[in-house]
Each structure stands twice: as C-alpha cells, then as structure tokens.
Amino acid sequence: MHRLSTYGLALVGVLLLWTAPARAIDIQEVVSPGGIKAWLVEDETADLVSMDFLFQGGESLDPVGKEGLAELVSSVLDEGAGDLDSQAFQRILNDKSITISFGAGRDSFSGSFMALNRYRDEAVRLLKLALTAPRFDEDAVERIRGQILINLKRRETSPNAKAGKALVKTLYGDDPYGRPGGGTIDGVQAVTVSDMRDFVTRTLTRDRLIVGVVGKITAEELKPMLDEAFGGLPEKGDVPVLPPVAASSEGGVIVIEQDVPQSVVSMAQPVAIDRKDPDYYAAYLVTHILGGGGFSSRLTEEVREKRGLAYSTYAALHDTKRSALLMAGVSTRNDAVAESVEIIRREWAKIRDKGVTAEELENAKTYLTGSYPLRFTTTGQIAGALTGIQYYDLGIDYIDKRNGYLESVTLEQANRVAKGLFDPGALTIVVVGKPVDLAATRPAPDIGG
Amino acid sequence: MRSPFYLAAFAAVLVFSITVRHADARVFDPETATLSNGMQVVVVSKRSAPVITHMVWYKVGAMDEPQGKSGLAHFFEHLMFKGTEKVPAGQFSEIVAKNGGQDNAFTSSDYTAYYQAIAADRLELVMQLESDRMRNLKFDPKEIETERQVILEERRSRTENRPGARLAEQADAAFYMNHPYGRPVIGWAHEIRDLTHEDIKAFYDRWYAPNNAVLVVVGDVDMGDVLPLAEKYYGSLPVRDVPDPVKWREPPHQADGTVVLRDRDVTQPSWSKRYLAPSYLYGASEYAYPLQVLVEVLSGGSTSRLYSSLVVQDKVAASAGAWYSADSRGPATLGFYVSPAPGKSLDDAAAAKEAKMADILRDGVTEDEVQRAIVRLTDAAELAKDSFQGIARTLGAAVTIGRSAQDVEAWPDRIAAVTVDQVNEAMRHVLTNQGALVSKLLPAAPSTQEGETAGKEKS
C-alpha cells in the first residue's frame, strides 16, 4: 500500500542522529544458522517484536530515465506475493495488525516490521513472500503508480518541495543526489514490471542486508525467524557502491517565484566531514549551537525570539556516506525574507569568526547527552538505531560510547572546527515565494513542473 | 502549538480511536489520585527506559474563547514560555534542555497541554518549573508583540500557504452553525492581530488553576514517587474560582451545504462530506463505540469497504476513506473523503462514493466485518503500550475532557461488546435525516467536468 509520505530533503532513509541511555541498552549480535546477522535488544514491555532492516543501495541507483524505480518497488512490494493477491495479502496484514512497510532512501532500501507475538509466525511468512516472491500484478502496480504520480504532481506546486528540489539540483547537478527524492513524473511513468523484478533481484540481497530487532523475543527464537524472513534472498547482488561526491560551493541566491504569502527558504553549503572524522562531534556540537533543536539555538533566538520573523528556523549537519552538507532553513513572510536571510548569513559568519562560548558548548553537551535516552522510547525507534549504527559501522558499543565522544570535545577544538566549517560565501540559498528586496544572483535550475 | 503541530492535538485524538487494547488484560494500568486542591493526577509506570513524559493539561481550549477572540487559547499557550519572576523569558526551555530534556505544548478546541520528556530523576525539576508558571506568569508587552508576529508566521506556514488547509478552515466554519468548533484553533488572522494584553491576562486568570488542570506522568516512576512531589509543587497552589465552561449545543443540521475552494496550486482535486455525530460526551453518546467500529469497517486499511471498492475494484478513486473521533467535549464529525483516480473526474469519484455509501446504508455492514474490525481495534490498543507519548496523550486527553482513566482501560471491552446491529443503527442515526456539508478542493482553471462556480457557496 502506498504511504502518502512527504519526501523532504532526506538523503538517506536511515536515522542520522541517535542518542545515549543512562541505563545500558544490551545489544546482542545474533547470527542465524543460515548466516543472517542481526542486532537484538530484548524488551519485554509489550508482547510484540519490531524489526528494522535495510539493503544498501537505494534510489540513487535508479537508472537515468527511470527515476522513481526504488520508490515504486517500495510501495508495491506489500501489494501481493506468492499465491496471495494484493487484497488477500493486505487482508492478513490488517486482520492481524501486522506492519510490513518499505521505504526508498537515497542510499538504502529499508523495511520495517512490527507484529504482536501471537501473529509473529504469520507476519514473518508474509515478509518472506514480499521480499522473495512479489507478484507485481498489473492492477496493483498501476494503482500505486497512479498514487505516486499524484503525489509527485502535488510536489510541483508545494513551496517546500520546490525549494528542496532546486537546492539539491544546484548543489549536485547531474549526480544522483541532484535528483528529487521519490523520483520524477517521467521516470515513474517509464518504469516497467521487468525493471522492478530486476531491482528486487539485484538489490534485495543478503550481502547488503542490515537488521535490527527489538521486542519480546530471545536470541534463540530470533535465529529461525531470520532464516525464514531473509534466508531465501540471493546471496549477492551486483549493484555498484557510488563514490563520494562533493556539493557545489559556488553559492548564491536563487529565487523561484510563487504567489504565496510566506516564502520558503532552504540553503546549504558543502562540508568535508564524515562519521569517521575525529572532528565529527565538534562539528555536530557547533551546528547544534547555531541552529539545533529545542528553543535555545542562535538562529531561533535571533530570527524568532528577538524579532518574530518566523515560526521555525534551523541549521543542521546533514551527512551521508557519500557527501555532507550544512543546511539551514526558514519560512517567513515575503517582506521579511531579505532580513531573515541576512541574519542567517551573519550568524554563519559570526560562529566561524568568533566561535562559541564555553557556556554554549557545555549547554549543548548536556542537552545532547542528556536527551539521548529520549531517542529510545519505542521498540521501533531502538530497532531503527540498531540498523543505523550498523550502516555507519559505528560499533556495537556505540550507544555506550557516543556521549563520551561528545563530552571529549574541547572549546579549542570546537572553535577550530567552526572556523573551517562555516562559509557564508558557499551557501546556496533557494527562495520559493515572492520575496521583497531580495535579488537572485543566479538562475534557477530546471526542476520540472 | 508553540512549535511543530498544534494539529498534533487533533492527531492524538484521531490516534486514540486506534490506541487502546485487549479484552482479557489491562491497557495502560494507570494509577489515579486527586490533590488537596482538586488537581487530578494520572500516573503510568513504564520501566522500559529511564525517562518520563510529564504533562500538565488545562481544561480550556479554543472553544472557551470569548466571541471575537479566536486564537486566544493558542496565543496564550505561546506566552507560557515568556517568563515568570523566577524564570525569565526563554529560560524555561533552556533549563529543560540543559537537563537533557525536550519540551513543548499544544492547543486544541478542547484543551491546552504542556509537556516535557526528560530523565526520570529530573521529575522534581520539571514540576517546579511547570507549577511556577501555572500562577506566576509575567506579561511583558514587548514579548507579547514579538510572539504575535511568530504566531502570524505560524498561521502562514500551516494554513495560508496551503490550499487544502485553507479549505479545511472554511469548511469547519461553514459546518458549525453555532458551536465554537467552527473557529480555527490558531485563530483568524485579524482577530490574532486584535487580541489585547487585557484579553490575555483575563484568560490566564480565568482558566489557569490547579483545580482546572490534570497532571499526567508516564515513565520510570510510580504514584509513590509522583504524589509527594505533586502535593509539594502543585498541591500548594491555591484553589481558584473557575467558571463552568459554556455547554455549546449545535442546532439540528437541516440544510445541505457545499464549500468550494479553487486555487491554482491545487494539482489533485479532493472531496469530502461531513455529518454531525455524537461523541463520548455529546448527543447520543451510546453510539460512540459503534461509530468507531463503523469507521474501522469503512476505512481501516486497504481491505476496508471504501478503499477496496472505490480504489481497488472500481478504480474510480486514488484514495477514499472515512474519519470519526469520539474523544471530544462537543459534537463529533463523521466524515468521508475521496480523490479521483488518474483520468477520472472528482464528480465521478464523489458519485461513486455516494452510491457505495447508499448501498451500505441500505444493506448494513456484516457481522464478519464487525468482528474483524473489533479484533484490529483491540490489537491496536495493545500496540499502543509501546509509546510513552502516546500513553500520556491518550490518558491526558480523556481525563481532561471529563472522562476517566477507567474509561480508557475499559475501551477494548466496550469495543469488543459492540454488535453489528448497534453499528448499523449508529450509521443510520448519523447519515439519515440531517444535512451534510460537502467540501471540494479544485484547481483554479474550471475544468469541463466540474460545474461549480468559483468561490464559496452554501445552500
């Protein structure tokens, strides 16, 4: 069943941030007799099992001209498999309150699964069928294709979607990261069932599978479940791993005119940092101080609290295995766009030139370390974190160590990193709306629509 | 809401209809108490993580605003973060953040709630902060004016930039002839601009009191941990004279109406139709449980009556379904929506939906459909135990609107007791002998298939 989702700018389908429980989360590595590996956290709060899994290789691998292939597959995979047609398959999911859903990220194809234990065997059987014997009946494919096209069409007039599309196109050009997430209208129309079968065979393979499981289930019970769900998948696929890509640092202002009362502004600059960089946590902290969650960031203070220019404004470090960006955004009435953008640019330069204070750094640390356990309050959240930690290869002890990485960042390190990180001149700024007194410095890219 | 989603309040209410559990066991197992000054307390122990969700709910929402003062409850919610003698403006959230917590608030027509998610050992701290602002708020004129601009931006983001949201607002206003549910929770822009500092102060004095509030704590604590602290911080606040809210009634809906919004940014037309319905606390409340089962039959997933017939079989619609929530102080709405499949017109899709509902109304839903819906609903109650926020919101909303924690616990049993005859009787009660409001969202250029004139019409 197609989920009427918003795609946003997310470059990958996995969580980028996770956080640190005061009480240890005990992760076991489980390997099934058939060789399927999973991380498991036993949690007996409710009589259910949540599982999160992903296959590396997502919509960035959609062939040119078939943009949207991964998205279409993710939405049709639960529309019938084996001898169960769409309605028969969905009826069991509904009647047994089983969640089986799939999602296409930039670099991954993910799935989530949740079932009450009394329905677990049936749920696992359906998951296996969906992964290994999807039907792709014409009826179901065309119905879902129609729903996806409606969503893509809707995004052509959404200021937020347009800003996102123009920003990634400008930053990444012809690289797959320059494509709109979720595909294009032409691409979705061009995808054939044969393309979809090919995608499943090549991408949904055991060598690129990552699994996290949380719930009332023991390691011994999990092993046969893993073999049942994933054992029937091909051992290896042949899709490539894309190399890193740097976003454009040319910067400038792009304006896309739309007659709406509030302009949407999205901006980003490239940064050279990844998860393995010793300065990663320093970069994460200083970005949080500039525009992170909660109500105490510099941008929120300057744009919202002092001047009432916007309801929300943010900055965030957005990193994948292929690329990293510093992003920011604000939505504000058309005659306040110029001022809001100016404030964000000024704060961008200020944090580079003057750094952060010892107090700001301390506050950011206590917030980010103290709030870590709040990220682990549902089984689904924990399962997602288990998958994300494996995807980024952060280590099975990451949850215990993560707060220590943040604590160890010194003021000198934070300010050295801030100096190298923030570059207001490299900011590509996209405005969708009717901004007053803000001139474009470069033309808008072609985003269709 | 102060940040993301005052609409989340409505979402929570909708979610409630699929949130509680199984006939042979308890749902959330809440403990309840009442402080010496009348403040109600609900605690749920959930030991799966060393954290708590702490919420204070006030029995005042947008429906309690004076005429001409729409948006006041929501505006006031924003101002609760603007400082007391002890905690200056902006410090509330900063203190919470420094302690590793997250905080926010939301407003609905029925209530206003404030919450913090934080480590369990910070319970006393958040109680200290929350009880302080229940009585000691300062009103700095400059802060109020800045916040007014923030709220107008919030309104632009949520409503004015979105044709679908603008239509929803117009449809609510056209649907309710008398009940204040017809006013947008965020307020009309011109009334937000006109709210005075006196309006704001009077609203606080009138409604914000411990005897008009409910404390909900969910997490790694129990009543033994919570009650002494609650008595210390909340129980010490004086009882205040809180007026009885106006019990608004909606006159019979005798006329049918249609509201049409055309906008050039609309790419996919959509249609909805709503009927006045009883809730747990309004009208023929014995139908509240059968109506939840009905909506599950009609609209629960892709094998439901409406989706499977209109979308899968007849291929006339891209989406189709129904909505209903019983959890409100005032009347509820039973609504239907449909959006055309590619190549079909909105009128085709709407006509197909009307024909399908006419069949169902004539023949009734079946015993098998009702039993399957009951299993799904009671299963959903069990799944709901997974979420701290979900538990706190479900219980908080129920108790705040005047139901009890025991009502929430009894939900699966009451759902399981619903019969097919009750479902069909409830359906006929709502769908026959009263007017309904249709709303249509259309692209700006009139297509040959739609006969409407532009603008809003109400017959």
Describe this protein's structure.
The complex is a heterodimer of chains A (449) and B (459). Chain A has 449 residues and is of the alpha+beta class. Chain A folds into two domains: 28-230, 2-Layer Sandwich (Cytochrome Bc1 Complex, Chain A, domain 1), CATH 3.30.830; 252-433, Cytochrome Bc1 Complex, Chain A, domain 1. Helix content of chain A is 39%, strand content 18%. In chain A, the strands form two sheets. A six-stranded mixed sheet of chain A has the order 1-2-6-3-5-4. Chain A has a five-stranded mixed sheet with strand order 7-11-8-10-9, sandwiched between helices. The model of chain A is unreliable at 1-22 (pLDDT under 50). Chain B is α+β, with helices and mostly antiparallel strands. Chain B has two domains: 8-233, Metalloenzyme, LuxS/M16 peptidase-like (Cytochrome Bc1 Complex, Chain A, domain 1, 2-Layer Sandwich); 257-443, Cytochrome Bc1 Complex, Chain A, domain 1, CATH 3.30.830.10. In chain B, strand 4 and strand 5 form a beta hairpin. The radius of gyration of chain B is 23 Å and the shape is globular. In chain B, the strands form two sheets. Chain B has a six-stranded mixed sheet, with helices on both faces. In chain B, strands 7-11-8-10-9 form a five-stranded mixed sheet. Chain B has 16 helices and eleven strands. Chain B starts with 7 loop residues before the first helix and ends in a 16-residue tail after the last strand. Chain B has helices at 8-16, 72-79, 91-98, 123-135, 141-160, 163-175, 189-194, 197-207, 223-233, 288-299, 305-313, 346-363, 367-383, 388-400, 405-416, 420-431; strands at residues 31-34, 40-45, 51-58, 102-107, 112-119, 213-219, 257-263, 270-277, 317-323, 332-340, 437-443. Chains A and B meet through helix 2, helix 4, helix 10, strand 10 and helix 12 of A and helix 3, strand 5, helix 5, helix 11 and helix 13 of B.
